[in-house]
Amino acid sequence: FSAVPLHPSPLRCAFAVAAAVCEELFFRGALLPDLGLLPQAFAFALAHTRFTDPVSLVESALLLPHYLLLGVALGFVAEACGYPSSALAHAVYNLLASFYALPLDAGAVALLLLGDSASVAALALANKVKSRKRASSA
Q1: Is 39 exposed, middle or buried (0-12, 13-18, 19+ CB in 10 A)?
Q2: If residue 122 lies in a helix (H) or strand (E), which one and from where to where?
Q3: Phi, psi of 71 (to 5 degrees)
């Protein structure tokens, strides 16, 4: 498969960044401290599900695991580095998604989930190492 280059307008790019900042403020700023990592990630995934028509629902259902893992990854970033870092990571993700579109086929979704899983595993490991260092220095 190959990514399809897009040519977003400056306004679309501005909305991509603004959406990331607002979503991070809500999901990682408000929900994460109260609900915890997995519930806020699930809420994030559901918020990215389109219920407008059957085709959109099926397409977004295929991407539900991706958004769940993305919510976990951004949650790890927020916990380890703070809200500004997760907002920056989310903005970069949204901008990349504005410039390139992946085909919605099994290979692309599998590769996306593999990348998501690797990111979550790396962030979880980094979080664990950071926690152990804090515990040993206390």
Answers
A1: middle
A2: helix 106-137
A3: -65, -40
Residue 62 to residues 56, 74, 91, 104, 112, Cα–Cα distance (Å)? 10, 20, 22, 9, 11
Contacts of 137 (CB under 8 A, 6+ apart): none
pLDDT tens per residue across span 1-36? 577 889 999 999 999 999 999 999 999 999 999 999
Query: Helix H segments across 8-105?
Result: 10-24, 32-35, 37-47, 54-81, 83-99
CB atoms closer than 10 angstroms to residue 32: 24
DSSP 85-118: HHHHHHHHHHHHHHHEE---SHHHHHHHHHHHHH
pTM of the model: 0.87
